[in-house]
Structures are given as structure tokens and as C-alpha cells.
Design goal:
Strand order of the largest sheet of chain B: 3-2-1-4-5-7-6
Shape of chain B: globular
Helix content of chain A: 25-40%
Oligomer: heterodimer
Helix content of chain B: 40-55%
Radius of gyration of chain B: 19 Å
Strand content of chain B: 5-15%
Largest sheet of chain B: 7 strands, mixed
Amino acid sequence: MSLAARFRCPTCGADALVAVTPELLRQATEKGAVRALAKCPRGHATVLTIDQYGQIRSALPVQESARPDCEVTDKAPMSVRARLAVILEKGAVTDADVLLLEKAKAAGWVICI
Amino acid sequence: MKMLIDNWGMFLLMREFMEILGGSKGLKLFMQYERYKLAAAVQAALECGVDCRKPPNDVISLLFSVARHKGLLKEGCQVEHVPQPKAPPPQAVEEYFQLVDDVVIDKMCEYVAKHPSDVVPREEAMAYYQALMSAPFYIAFRKAIYDKLAKLYKYPTILDVGAGTQDPLDILDVCETRGVRCELTALEVDQRLCADLERLTAKYGFNVACGWGKLGTYHIAVVQNVLHWATDPLQVLSSARRHAGRLFISQGVVEGAGIGFVLIKALGANKPLSWREVEGLAKRAGWRLARRYARYPDYLALYR
């Protein structure tokens, strides 16, 4: 039987539940803690650290990071190409980078496979 | 001398801005490029077949109006020749001038033939807007205003009206630098910007209000370059009056407008205002002018 542990989404603050399975508890007992991926009700992916007692020790947002399968398209204007290329190469360092990358994808300036 | 008296607040900020641009040489280059790009945009419009007396839409109309005000567009549709500056623009504003090329000059013939919203679709406008708002020179400019003039760190509760995605982070950064914890509420009416803001709240610890409905009361409201986006700027200022004890306005006004105004207009901004209009609207909304720091190119003032 799985236990349910409560966590607060680090992205939007929504309360969410994650199922802590016996397998997760076993791994946490062996290693001291285990990492699990969960989604909040609003769909934000979150990395949880769960200890051997089924307690959530940390909840961190999954940030958009450098993706080798993304590229800047010809549609991207010259003004932001350099910035987008750096974000794709090194990963989004700031939240402004994350937002710019999202908007650039929506505008068709960046495509990811 | 009159310019100095009208705008002493701008001179206080100039030091910060000049540091970013690389001193007085950088500032001079910035101004040269502003003029050069404005003349190039007007020239492009005329080459695309526009009659300067009959601009086909608001974007080109604003372009001509700004160029006339700067003395670049003369009677009979003559454009003053402005040579390209020999040195490249200061690094901090290189991307900005490239944005001007991308959004205004390179698309000029499209503006002549189509409605501006068909030239820069909404999705692209949002991406350009995000790029502009997060440009280092613009962040530095806003922070200097919040720190040196508005002194936002002195107010326990702040309402950031029409916050956008970058402004709340800048305000919190100013507070943090001063070692103060500011309680900030970011107000947005655009649903997509609200969603972006909500994702930032947990990390930065500010509140988001999507619309005027669920607001409390605040020590100060900040209205930073919002009024030219609003369909009803008076309503914005009147609503702020109901929720805040003081108001700080920072608004780029038409008296000092350059090519940046045309850029913003192309991205969907509404009507640009003069400093007298801004002041008149604030007074009609029930605010009393406490201190005016500058009239143009940015109107900067504190109200009670």
C-alpha cells in the first residue's frame, strides 16, 4: 500500500500529493533519501527529495535547461538570436531567460524535437 | 537651463545610465544612433511609397510625428540625412538597436501594406516584449528609478501596477540590495502575463493579482510605463487611488519620444501621452502631486 505525502508546488504554490510507494521507501532506506518526479495539479513538474520515513525534504521546480535537440530557427530575429543561442547552449540561467525561451518557442523562433 | 530645471531627476539617474553605456562617450553614441535609426525608419517608409502627409496607420503616423518633433522630417516630406555613426553602438544597447531594425525598419514596407498586428503577430510581439523588458540596460534604468527616486524600499507594501514579468524582480532586487524585505503585489490584467507571474511567485515570494478585483491596500502603487499600454489610463490611475496611499509614476512621454516609442507601438502599445496629459490624468484620478522629478523624456513624479 502506498502512502501519500503532501508538498507545495515551488512554481505556483499549489498544494499537491505524491504517492510514496513501498519501493520508494525501500530505496530511501537504503540510500538515506530518494528523488522522485511529481506534477502539481497545475501541471508543474517538480523534483522531490523523500526520506526513509516518507517525508518530503525538498521540492524543486524542473527548470527549462539546455537541450541539445532545440535550435534557433531562421525565423528568429537577429536581435535575439545571440541571446537565444547562449540560452540553448548554457541553459536558462535566469527566470527572464526561461520566459524568453518559452516565448521564443511560441513565436517559432526556437524549435525543439 | 530650462531642460535642467524640468528634468533634474533624470540627471540624478544619468550617472547610472552613463555607467552602463560606457561614460559620456557612450551616451553621445546612444543619442547619435537614436537619431540615425529614426531617420533611417522615416527614409524606409518614404521609399516604401508612403506620403508623409497621409500615414496609413498609427505606427507610421507616430514615426512621422516623432521625426517632425526631432526636426528630421521637413516640409515636403524631406528627410534630413543623418550619417551612420562611425563607432558601433555601446554594447549594452546593441540588442535594442537591433530590435529597432528587426521590428521597425526591416518591416517598414509590410507596415505600409498591412495592419500592424498582422506584421508582428501576438506571439512574436510577446517574445520581442520579453527580450526588451529583460535587456540589461532597461533593467538598470528601472532599478535606478526605484532606488534613487521612488525609494521603494521605504514602503512596507507595494503594488506594482501592470507589472509585466521583469518589473517585480527589479523591485525586489532593489529592496534586497537595501537589506529590506518588501511585500510586493504584482498586478496584471493580461492573462498570459498573470500565468507567467504566478510561476515566479513561489521563488521570489511576491503576490500576484490578476485584475483589480481582489486587491488590498498598499502604501504605494508604482505605475512604470503602463499608461501607453492601457486603453483607459484614467481608469488605471483611479483604481490605483482606491488601493494605495501614494503613487509613483514613471512614464516615457511623447515630448522626448524617439524610435523606441515606434518600436513599442509596433508591439501593440496604445496611445503615447504627453507629460501634461499624464499629470492631468493623475489629478483627475484624485492624486495630488507631491514631487515631480522630471517631465521628459521620462515623466517621473510622486503623488499623494
